[in-house]
Amino acid sequence: MEHTWIFVLIITWIKLSAAEGLEPIQVAGLISSMAKHRQIETIHIEMDPSHRDLIISIRKHLRRFVAATQTFEPLESDSELTPFEAPYLHFKVGFDNLRTLEHIPHTNSVLILMDSPDNISYIEQLIGSISLRLDSNIFVAVPNDGFALYEIYTVENRLIMDLYSQWTNFRFSWFPSYSKWERRSNLNGMNIKIAALPSRPYLDLDCHNTSLNNCTISGMYADVFFVLRDILNFTYQFVQPPDDTWGTSDSEGAYNGMLGQLQRQEIDLAPTSFTVTKERSRVVDFAFPITDMHHRFFVPKPRDRVNWTAYTDPLANSVWSVLGILSLTVPFLLWTSVVLKNDPQKAQFKLYRSFAFIAMTLTFAKPWSSVPQTYVPKVMFLLVSLAGSLIYWHWEAMLISFLAVKTKALPFNNFLNLMEDTNLKIALLPGTSFADTFRLSPDSLWRTAWAERIEPHLNTYPTDKESLVELIISDRQFTLFDNYYSIKTFQAYKTCQIVDIPQAYESKVFSYAFAKNSPYFQVFNYYLRVMKESGGLDQIIRRYVTDEQPICSETSAALGLENCFTALLILGLGILISLVCFGFERNNARFRSWLKYFHDDDDEASDDMDQDDEKNLEEDSALRLQLHLARKLRLQSKHIDALEGEISFLRGELIKGKKGIPTTTTMTKQF
Predict the structure, then answer these.
(1) Beta strand pairing status for 90-95 and 190-194?
(2) Which residue has the higher pLDDT, 279 or 394?
(3) Does 527 reside within a domain?
(4) Separation in Å, CA 380 to CA 367, 375, 500, 539
(5) Does the residue 597 lie in any domain?
(6) Rounded to two decimals, what is the model's pTM?
(7) In terms of C-beta distances under 8 Å and separation of at least 24 residues, what long-range contacts does 306-310 make, across chains too?
(8) DSSP class per residue in 360-418
């Protein structure tokens, strides 16, 4: 879409009068048509005072115009203009013998109205003395069965006049089918001066033969630049930034680095990833945004920390809460049902035993030695056992993966935490907008960070990101503040030598930076928009920026102490408690009696179980009882026989002793 035009109507004064060549009604009709079709808001009329009647006639024929003044006197100053106000148009008239032509290149649009086609050579000579540009909007209206409208601009100091339209019978018969920048897309090899600094993945710089100005560019923004070069047909010359910085301002608003080059008009543009800020926009023009970004803090890979919840993480806190509630309520229900039903196994399901059964079954699926015999307790027992088994199987399946994950202890979680709980220094790339983020921030805490943790060390920081990354890896006293999408392309991030704090700051956009009022700004901006709308820009970006996450898995590493610590801690506490109990048992009678209570209770339960077994045996089979009694009788009979044999032996020995015959015992001793 064409921009709104602001016209300067220049009536050539050589041999020009209201009676020669031009008729006021034609001039008025041409301006009226342009106002209707081209959305004119302002017309600057520069002419000789002798053509006062022509201006009056134009005002008269354009019925919409309302004169603000009634007299037209020559102005004393070149810069003064007499205004005419209208609902749709704004006239500014100057009578200055065309000496104000110097301002023509700086107006949005200019219309030069000729009295005859013979004066084209004069117009070329006149325009040739003015510094026209590629983006100039100068049109020449030549009488030709109405008016032929030409557009005039320069490419590489060469004047170009192209037929723009034909005005006949008080209307334009046609307009160009292509937009302004499509008509001016051939720059005929025009040489453009550029500067750049490396910033992965946006741009890499490769300088040859150690020559400062013999460098080639590559990367995302370079690919976009090369596409524009092929479309617009221009060449470029690389100019190295004098201090290898992007540019920051001093107290007087003067910038150093690449921004200083643009501010001083030493280069035309910087086709690299400049952060668009309000402060920078005062001295440069930023093109259509190419990519967006945000900052993050980066720290060295944290050391492994003890994972206290390694064995509880497989189940959510809500699950553990439900298990806790069940462990406190179900034992009462089980114990009550066993007591009320007078279950034969009630000794095995006393209240404290019911608590132990429910807790161990729901958490560790530990089997119980006894099963209730009555219907209601048995159903409850089986349901609890089934639920415990299912929970245990789920927990066991998840436990392996949770134990394999190593938990990292980040030194801080956000900027406030960084400032209040740590003494880390903040490293960043000197001479960039990263420094302005802190230095010019409206937040006092960020300005404090600049004054205390950045500025004192700024001169010691490297000027390239690779060295900055190495700095924070080797020295854990630093944290790096940088563009997240840039740092994630570094090998140190991909291999988890450094990690990001998952908190985004200062979301902004990147774009090319142009010298203020550059003649190339609009044509570059137009084709950047075309690339965005056609999808070509996104295709280039996707080649360099992906959603690939760093590969930080350590599946081949042995399970560390930090994940087994909980189990080992429980084992150690168990041993310690056992030793303490052993000491109390040895030295405290009351403690021994307390332990004896539980021991006797277990024996009683065991005796009850034996009695129940014997009773069941008697009730089930009389034959088994007979066999049992017969077995006991046989054992007793054998015992009696053995005793009788021993008695006979002793009696024989006694008789031998009385008769003086040596006994077996005496002979053994002598031997």
Answers:
(1) unpaired
(2) 279
(3) no
(4) 15, 9, 52, 64
(5) no
(6) 0.61
(7) 306/561, 306/562, 306/565, 307/406, 307/407, 307/562, 307/563, 307/565, 307/566, 308/565, 308/566, 309/566, 310/402, 310/403, 310/563, 310/564, 310/565, 310/566
(8) HHHHH----S----SHHHHHHHHHHHHHHHHHHHHHHHHHHHHHHSPPB--S-SSHHHH
Structural domain for 101, as ranges: 6-183
User: Does residue 145 carry a pLDDT above 90?
Assistant: no
Q: What are the pLDDT digits (tens) for 74-116?
A: 334 333 344 444 444 555 555 444 444 555 555 556 777 766 6
Helix (H, G, I), strand (E, B) or coil at 47: strand
Rounding to the nearest 10 degrees, give the CA dihedral for residues 490, 494, 495, 500. 90
First to last CA, the chain: 136
pLDDT tens column, 320-329: 788 788 888 8
Q: Residue 164: which of 194, 190, 142, 197 has the closest Cα?
A: 142
Last residue of a domain, one of 163, 183, 203: 183
Cβ-based neighbours of 648, under 8 Å, separated by 6 or more: none
pLDDT in tens, 457-472: 998 998 888 899 999 9
Residue, of 549 and 294, whose pLDDT is higher: 294
User: Is residue 74 included in any domain, yes or no?
Assistant: yes
Structure tokens at 636: 């007793």
Nearest to 394 by CA among 314, 321, 316, 312: 314
Q: Which helix (H) or strand (E) holds 218?
A: strand 215-218
Q: How far apart are CA 123 and CA 148, in angstroms?
A: 14
Q: Of 409, 418, 476, 475, which Cα lies nearest the Cα of 452?
A: 418
Q: Determine the Cα–Cα distance for residues 377 and 602; give it in Å rounded to an integer.
A: 21
